[in-house]
């Protein structure tokens, strides 16, 4: 019989798919590492598994313990699935601006979600930061993974994403492109690929315009999961050879094209990373192999990126002079 012992063993080993339409006119091969094939639907399952297993080994997480993390998104889903299968409880803390759909997903997996008001100062006792710190202090057997400073975040990519890409491309990868949030993906995968290729693989970070990684001050942008207003320790500044800043509009337009033209319903940070990958690929020749990592699925963004009204309200509409209207008439 061929089966998996649990959903945990399905983490990683995601497919590489060639991009065929958005790459028109480009000579290099551009491949997408499609991370929504992970059981929790995102790249974050990888870090959840390694952070939990490392904490079990170090004794920080004991049988029956509780995982407390301020997260509303993909990391929470990964932690919730792994924790459930291994018999731990999860408490996630999120700001009240997070959509009820996201909160309901975490609760569906059995996690407890504490919602905090956004409209209070960070030093207020009810703030997002203070509530999660207090829960860690007051919950017996509590452990906080802290993806921003946990070395097992980048290490999970050093031990899984990096080796997978090297094997899948038979060592032919020449460029690796990924969005930067905590920095775990680019730091761990990038370091592995540089070591395996003896420094030949170039590593390119994609960043929303306004975020610190591309020289901004943390100015707001709408692409979720990437960019920061501080420098996390999970990010190794020595790995990326280049950081490409991408606007919200370009990110969302490319995200919509990936669904329409490539059959890839993915999130906004994926569109952002593809814009950066194409910018790099345009400079390259037929022997180059560019891999771009797509962190999550578009299902979590249906009411925003894939909602025409939201897109036009924010001024992100496609230029109607392009194929769009003609296609509709035909
Ligand atoms: N895209 C999305 C949707 C994410 O949730 C994250 C994680 N914050 C990233 C990209 C960036 O990955 P990393 O934290 O490894 O830099």
UniProtKB/TrEMBL annotation:
Keywords: CBS domain, Lyase, Pyridoxal phosphate. This is Cystathionine beta-synthase. The chain holds residues 1 to 330 of 464 of the full protein. Coiled coil: none annotated. The lineage of its organism: Bacteria, Bacillati, Actinomycetota, Actinomycetes, Kitasatosporales. It catalyses: L-homocysteine + L-serine = L,L-cystathionine + H2O. Belongs to the cysteine synthase/cystathionine beta-synthase family. It comes from the Bacteria. Its EC number is 4.2.1.22. GO terms for molecular function: cystathionine beta-synthase activity. It is an enzyme of class 4 (lyase). Its cofactor is pyridoxal 5'-phosphate. It comes from Streptomyces tricolor.
């Amino acid at each position: 019989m061929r089966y998996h012992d649990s959903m945990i063993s399905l983490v990683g080993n995601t497919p590489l798919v060639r991009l065929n339409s958005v790459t028109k006119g480009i000579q290099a091969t551009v491949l997408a590492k499609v991370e929504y094939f992970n059981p929790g639907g995102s790249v974050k399952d990888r870090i959840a598994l390694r952070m939990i297993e490392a904490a079990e080994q170090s004794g920080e997480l004991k049988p029956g313990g509780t995982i407390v993390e301020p997260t509303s998104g993909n990391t929470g889903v990964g932690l919730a699935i792994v924790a459930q299968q291994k018999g731990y409880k999860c408490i996630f803390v999120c700001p009240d601006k997070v959509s009820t759909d996201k909160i309901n997903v975490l609760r569906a997996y059995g996690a407890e979600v504490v919602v905090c008001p956004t409209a209070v100062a960070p030093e207020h006792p009810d703030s997002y930061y203070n509530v999660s710190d207090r829960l860690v202090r007051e919950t017996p057997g509590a452990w906080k993974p802290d993806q921003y400073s946990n070395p097992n975040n980048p290490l999970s990519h050093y031990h899984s994403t990096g080796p997978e890409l090297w094997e899948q491309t038979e060592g032919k990868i020449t460029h690796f492109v990924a969005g930067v949030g905590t920095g775990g993906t680019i730091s761990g995968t990038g370091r592995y690929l540089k070591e395996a290729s003896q420094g030949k693989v170039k590593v390119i970070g994609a960043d929303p315009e306004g975020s610190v990684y591309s020289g901004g001050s943390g100015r707001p942008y709408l692409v979720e999961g990437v960019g920061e207003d501080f420098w996390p320790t999970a990010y190794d500044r020595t790995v990326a050879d280049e950081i490409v800043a991408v606007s919200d509009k370009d990110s969302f337009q490319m995200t919509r094209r990936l669904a329409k033209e490539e059959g890839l319903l993915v999130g906004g940070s994926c569109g952002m990373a593809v814009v950066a990958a194409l910018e790099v690929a345009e400079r390259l020749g037929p022997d180059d192999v560019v891999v771009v990592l797509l962190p999550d699925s578009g299902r979590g963004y249906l009411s925003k990126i894939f909602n025409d009204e939201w897109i036009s309200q924010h001024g992100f509409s496609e230029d109607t002079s392009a194929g769009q209207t003609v296609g509709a008439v035909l």
